[in-house]
Amino acid sequence: QVQLVESGGGVVQPGRSLRLSCAASGFTFSSYGMHWVRQAPGKGLEWVALIWYDGSNKYYADSVKGRFTISRDNSKNTLYLQMNSLRAEDTAVYYCARQGPPDDITILRYFDYWGQGTLVTVSS
Amino acid sequence: QSALTQPASVSGSPGQSITISCTGTSSDVGGYNYVSWYQQHPGKAPKLMIYDVSNRPSGVSNRFSGSKSGNTASLTISGLQAEDEADYYCSSYTSSSTPCVFGGGTKLTVL
Predict the structure, then answer these.
(1) A45-89: per-residue pLDDT in tens?
(2) Among chain B residues, CA nearest to A111
(3) Cβ contacts (< 8 Å) between A59 and chain B: which residues?
(4) What secondary structure does DSSP assign to chain A, as a single string?
(5) A47 touching B, CB under 8 A?
(6) Is the CB of B34 less than 8 angstroms away from the CB of A111?
(7) Cα–chain-centroid distance for residue A22?
(8) What pLDDT score does A102 carry?
(9) Cα distance between residue A83 and residue A23, in whole Å
(10) I want to staple A96 with a disulfide (CB 3.0 to 4.6 A). Which of A14, A22, A78, B62 is the partner?
């Protein structure tokens, strides 16, 4: 069965960095576009970043552009999110999510599987 | 402010039907048949309930249905059950700079 397991969250001071990981299993990881979506406490969902199945293209929300970097290692079935220059407003649960279906990466039709999320708290 | 507009809350009694609306523009909901709906219980990850406006993934109850008219999509839950109490989010593909937009979420209370 498809599993996505995030890790790497924690408490970090403003301006510092953190790297999140998402370990995938139960499917051919290298065939799917992958995303990070976040949810601030008590708030709604916010799309953060996308990486194509082969890592050739990456896209970011304006709110994180220039500070966050999405990457993947298809040999390790793992998705990453490097977060630099963190701000208080980055405090959220970060979910990795699989884009379905795999046949057309250019149109985001839906997220068919989500991880359980990892909490990032930016506070001094 | 979210790109898609949903009511903050809806409620219904067990056995009743409720509908949650999701209003966007011709650049998202109205322009593409790529609206999806997610159920989220407290402290849990979102779960896909409807995709491509009206399709149900395998394993999702047929009590859940989706539709669209113009720039507004809707999620209908029939035969409400206590376990349906959750937050519901709509999402749509968009022609803007981001690949998708979300609604602000609707809290469903089963009375």
Answers:
(1) 999 999 999 999 999 999 999 999 999 999 999 999 999 999 999
(2) B48
(3) 98-99
(4) --EEEEE--EEE-TT--EEEEEEEESS-GGGS-EEEEEE-TTS-EEEEEEE-TTSS-EEE-TTTTTTEEEEEETTTTEEEEEE-S--GGG-EEEEEEEEE-TT-TTS--EEEEE---EEEEE--
(5) yes
(6) no
(7) 8
(8) 83
(9) 17
(10) A22
pLDDT above 90 as % of chain A: 92
A23 contacts chain B (CB < 8 A)? no
3-class secondary-structure state, position B98: coil
Q: Which residues of B touch A110 (CB under 8 A)?
A: 34, 36, 48, 51-52, 91
For tokens 């409720």, what's the residue?
B18
B36 close contact with A: CB closer than 8 A: yes
Which tokens go with A65?
Answer: 């552009």
A23/A37 Cα distance (integer angstroms): 15
Confidence band of B97 (pLDDT split at 50, 70, 90): confident
Nearest chain A Cα distance for residue B67, angstroms: 15
